[in-house]
Amino acid sequence: MRLGVDVGGTFTDLVLHDETSKRTYQAKTPSTPEDQSIGVAAGVKLICEKAGIDAKDISLILHGTTVATNAVLEGKGARVGLLVSEGFEYTLHLAKSWTPGPLFGWIVMDKPDPLASLADTRGIPGRMNARGEEVAPFDAEAATKLIDDLCGSGIEALTISLMHSYANPAHERALAAIVAERFPDIPVSLSSDILPEFREYDRAITTVMNDYVRPIMTRYLSRIEDRLQAEGIDSRLHIVRSDGGLMSAQAAAERPVHTVLSGPAGGVTSTVMIARRTAYKNLLAFDMGGTSTDVSVILNGEPTISRSTEVGSFPAKVPTLDVRSVGAGGGSIADVSELTKSLRVGPRSAGARPGPVSYGRGGTEPAVSDANVVLGYLPPVLLGGDMKLDVEGARAAVGRIGETLGLSPEDAAQGILDIANEVMLGALRVITVQRGLDPREFGIVAFGGAGPLHANAMAELLGCYPVVVPTNPGVLSALGFLESEFKNEFVQTFIRSTTGMDADLVWSRFGELEGKALEWLDSEEVPEGDRTIRYSLDLRYEQQGFEVSVDIDRATVEAKGTLDAVIEKFNEQHEQLYGVRFTVPVELVALRVVATGATMPVEEDVAATAGASLQDALMETRPAYFKGKWVDTPNYDRAKLPPGIKVPGPAIIRQYDTTIVLLSDHYAELEEHGNLLIWPNAKES
Fold this sequence. Notes:
The strands form 10 sheets. Strands 13, 14, 15, 20, 25, 26, 33, 36 and 37 form a 9-stranded mixed β-sheet that branches. Strand 2 and strand 3 form a beta hairpin. This protein is globular. It has 6 domains: 2-72 and 223-259, Nucleotidyltransferase, domain 5, CATH 3.30.420; 76-216, no CATH class; 262-329 and 420-475, ATPase, nucleotide binding domain (Nucleotidyltransferase, domain 5, 2-Layer Sandwich), CATH 3.30.420.40; 332-413, no CATH class; 486-597, Dna Ligase, domain 1, CATH 3.30.1490; 614-684, no CATH class. The protein has 18 helices and 37 strands. Helix 1 (36-51) packs across helix 7, helix 4 (140-151) crosses helix 5 (170-182) and helix 9 crosses helix 14 (476-482). By secondary structure, it is of the alpha+beta class. InterPro entries: ACX-like_C, ATPase_NBD, Hydant_A_N, Hydantoinase_A, Oxoprolinase-like. One of its GO terms (biological process) is glutathione metabolic process.
């Protein structure tokens, strides 16, 4: 039995899969921001009760966490000391000399303080050049005095990031040895271990971020393991990486920077699985939760991987699934600007506590979920009757917004939803239209607790059909964790012109990286038959500032021939990406080896329908607000919808973990895999 756990801003979602019976159980419990491990333990207890099993029966727990992300966003990380090469103490302050915004954006830029302060930074004598050659000797005596001064000042973690350590880490390791001898309790991260690549600022800030969140992540993982053991669970705990892979809890404690986008990864993984199992290979992942909405592109059944991301104002150069997030969710608060008297929605969120007004937990400001309640889209009870909503409270709160704007509660609620939809539409346009992709050539997969409420409206705006609502949309991210594979990336910067270069220099280095990859697979206890090794080279035209990653098959690596075919493939990819190829020499930048370990797929039997007709699925008829008027709208139980039966809109389709809004001029039907597909009526004409 495998358990997936996704901690969100409002709810903690859990999915338990029994590989023997091929049954899946789900549960949602309120998140506990003060200590996420409390909500996780409560959710584990709840799902075990639902499945009728003993907690000891769970063999593997796969957990996506926002602990690292929140620590950076909220500025609540550890106090980090930083050792750099002498003369480079201002690396984090200089950054990339980039300012946000349009022309003159620098005038109003509020530049954030670095994650490691200048007062906690020390310059170490000694220097390597870009080829890994020592050009200034390492001064161990001076370094020891600087380390004693810094580590004795009360820092909680230490980052060592020296110039060109990617080419030769000897000086960094010498510093680490001194710290280990004199201050063994201080955790240390080496930039040559965390990110052995060139570009000084990227390497430094990524390693500092690792240390900034490391003590917090270590404490969190310790707490969650203690709470799970208290519940009688002694199974292995694995954490989901930002690129959708898995890592052990111990590895996550040492390299938490690889978990900064852990939460959204599960939903993207599940969307990939839907693309591979259905006829829809081009899909947009639309994950709307309580605090934010995450969107991503699946093209030809494959996710888009980025080599870097941003957490708040800071870059992090780690492999991530290319996910865009906006501050629009079910808990996003609506208010009226005192200055412009206009309606605003988000990015402030009611979170899990107090939550939207309709949750009845003390919230007073109306949120997007309250607007859905006012319009009749959300029923008075959720989670199979476990959660009752305060309908009158939501109407009163939204009504106050309406009074300020001179609108009825219904029109104010519609305005809240329209603005929230526009915010999310902007994110979807960024990943499609702004990249030259036509959204009309994609379907949209709706998940997250609020995704199916808004997905039909998003599809109508973008023209992307069908809307695919999976079997368990409210807990799809947790389900995706169950299908994540073990993954780690090993890279070596190797900057050389390919003109006249001996190809053996490349193939031999691939062998070294593959050796490291196999050691990692051994440490994760991945069976031989489940292992995959992939190779790639980062290439660019000489004088270019950025590179293109070119995949290489194993046969090419083992043949150890010339690089001609690889260079031609680079030219083709460059032309495909940018519409041009050049006749200038090609430069090699880095080698990459990605090791993966497959996990068992989630094979779930599609549940037999409990109804034989649309009438059997009818729960009740309730008024809902569509196109400016109240309409008596049928509410259906999804579990009782027969396959192939068309559900005409407008309609509300309810299930345990979410509610689906089917707009007018649309219809819905179940396909063979249990997914609910929403199409415009015009499709049949």
